[in-house]
From TrEMBL:
Domain AB hydrolase-1: 7-247
Record InterPro entries: AB_hydrolase_1 (IPR000073), AB_hydrolase_fold (IPR029058), Sec-Metab_Biosynth_Hydrolase (IPR052897)
Pfam families recorded: Abhydrolase_6
Entry protein name: AB hydrolase-1 domain-containing protein
Length: 270
C-alpha cells in the first residue's frame, strides 16, 4: 500500500459500517487500505457492550500492526470512546519513539476524530458525561436499547437532502444501553499516547459545536497533542461533505507520518 498506514474506521452509536460508504472508495483510490469495524454493541443484542466493542477494534488494529503495517484510527461520535481505548499499548512512546508493543512491528501513528469526545480512563460513556442523559435520547428498560427521542434526521443529517436524510435514518440500527452505562474498566485515554487530528462540525445538532470546543480545550489542557480543523456540516460530514472529510484524513496522515519521521531521526541522532 505504498507505505501508507492502514485506516481503521469506527462508527458511532445507532450507525454501522455503511457510514463510511462515501469516503472509503475515495481513499482506496489513493492506495489506502481501509478496514471498517462493525461494533458488536450495534448488533441488536443488548447483552453486548463496550468491552466487546473495544476488542473488535483492537483485533482489527493488531491484524494490521502484526503484519508490519502502521495504522491510523478514524473515529466518529461514540466510536471515539472505543477507538481511544483500543489503542492501549499499540502506539509509540511520544517522548522517545520507543515501542511498548514488543510483539508487533507496526504501530498506531495517530487518531483522526470526527465530532466526538475524549475518553477518560476508567469511566464509561455516561460517567464521562457526568451521569446526565442527553435530552435527545432515553434508555428503554424493556428492550435494553437506547431510543432516540428527537428526529434523527435533524440530529445527524440535517444538511443532506430530505430524501437522502430519510434514507440514512432508515439505515439506523439498535444501540445497546449496556455499551453506554457499563464497561468503564475497558476505557483508556489513548488520545494521550498518540497525536490526534480533530474535525469539529460547526452545524452539529447531535454534539453541539460549543461542546466539541470545550472537549478539545480540556483535552489540550490534559496534555493532548491535538490539531483541530473545522467543517461547516452536521454530525455526519463523511456523508454531507465526503471530499472535504477525505482531505482532512489525508492531511492528518501526512502530518502524522512527517512527525513520526522527525521523531525517529531525532532519536537516531541522540
Amino acid at each position: 500500500m505504498s507505505g501508507k498506514p492502514s485506516l481503521i474506521f469506527i462508527h458511532g452509536s445507532w450507525h454501522h459500517t455503511d457510514t463510511w460508504n462515501k469516503i472509503v472508495p475515495l481513499l482506496e483510490d489513493q492506495q489506502f487500505k481501509c478496514v471498517r469495524v462493525a461494533l458488536p454493541s450495534g448488533a441488536s443484542d443488548p447483552s453486548l457492550g463496550l468491552p466487546e466493542d473495544v476488542k473488535a477494534v483492537r483485533d482489527a488494529i493488531v491484524a494490521e500492526t502484526s503484519q508490519g503495517r502502521d495504522v491510523m484510527v478514524v473515529v466518529h461520535s461514540y466510536g471515539g470512546l472505543v477507538g481511544s481505548s483500543a489503542v492501549k499499548g499499540l502506539t509509540r512512546n511520544k517522548e522517545d519513539g520507543s515501542s511498548p508493543a514488543k510483539s508487533t512491528s507496526g504501530h498506531v501513528i495517530g487518531i483522526a476524530m470526527i465530532a466526538t469526545g475524549f475518553a477518560q480512563t476508567g469511566l464509561c460513556f455516561m460517567e464521562g458525561l457526568g451521569g446526565i442523559t442527553p435530552p435527545a435520547w432515553k434508555f428503554n428498560q424493556q428492550t435494553g436499547f437506547v431510543d432516540l427521542v428527537d428526529d434523527p434526521r435533524e440530529l445527524f443529517y440535517h444538511d443532506l437532502s430530505v430524501e437522502e436524510g430519510d434514507y440514512w435514518v432508515s439505515r439506523l440500527i439498535n444501540q445497546s444501553t449496556k455499551a453506554l452505562v457499563e464497561g468503564g474498566e475497558s476505557v483508556y485515554s489513548g488520545w494521550k499516547d498518540t497525536p490526534v487530528w480533530y474535525l469539529s462540525t460547526k452545524q452539529d445538532h447531535g454534539l453541539p459545536f460549543e461542546a466539541q470546543k470545550f472537549f478539545v480545550q480540556s483535552a489540550k489542557e490534559a496534555g493532548g497533542d491535538i490539531t483541530v480543523r473545522e467543517i461547516d456540516t452536521s454530525h455526519s460530514p463523511m456523508l454531507s461533505k465526503p471530499e472535504e472529510t477525505v482531505a482532512f484524513i489525508v492531511d492528518a496522515v501526512k502530518a502524522l507520518k512527517d512527525k513520526k519521521r522527525r521523531r525517529i531521526v531525532t532519536c537516531w541522532r541522540h
